[in-house]
Model the fold of this input.
Amino acid sequence: MKPHRRRILIRSAAAAPVDAAAPQPRVAVNFDRPKVSELTMGMRVWGINGVGFDMLGASPLETVKLGTHEVWEFRNEGRAGMVRMAMPHSMHVRGLQFRVIGRSVASRFARGHDKVKAGLVDKGWKDTVLVMPGERVRILLGFADYPGPFLYHCHMLEHGDSGLMRNHLVMATNAVERDNPIAKIAGFAKRQRITGTPTTMQLVAAVAIEGVCSNGASRLPS
Ligand SMILES: [Cu+2]
Done:
């Protein structure tokens, strides 16, 4: 029998912001293609899109440009694991505040969801959003102020510690750095106050700038 894939849209108060200063979702550079983070569980190890924490890693999906807005979607559907279970996750994005712009829930989770949905408060600025079992939650983020690597993770300690934590990288670009890899690395290292051997600096800066994971070392500039 085919799995039942119907989803139920939950009315989100934030969909029509009462705060006139709130950004509108259409300012996002990826409004039509939200970046999806599946909150996954393997053998008792949590992850995001099937991978756990990586100190220096930020995937291309996790790399954003300073001065832009993006829409991200957290999906908590209990997939990709031998243990098919879904728990609430309290997703926190460091370094900024965001808006919740929409929720939906899989129909097979709707009954349980009905019991708690009155407690979900999506109005206003957030730095953490609760993602219930079976839910997809969309948020609008503006990367206005600071370049560099930041964490995003589940705020339940054992989940974050078990791998439900990743970096997102805010890239600053300007004409000089865009055209000159050496200036790009030097500029990044200076802004981030990265010190150490040239190899360390290169690695950290290249990972950050290029958005490659640590296994992408072949792309390090020489
Ligand atoms: Cu969690």
In short: Residues 198-210 form the longest helix (13 residues). Residues 89, 154, 156, 159, 164 surround copper (II) ion (CB under 6 Å). The radius of gyration is 19 Å. The chain has five helices and eleven strands.
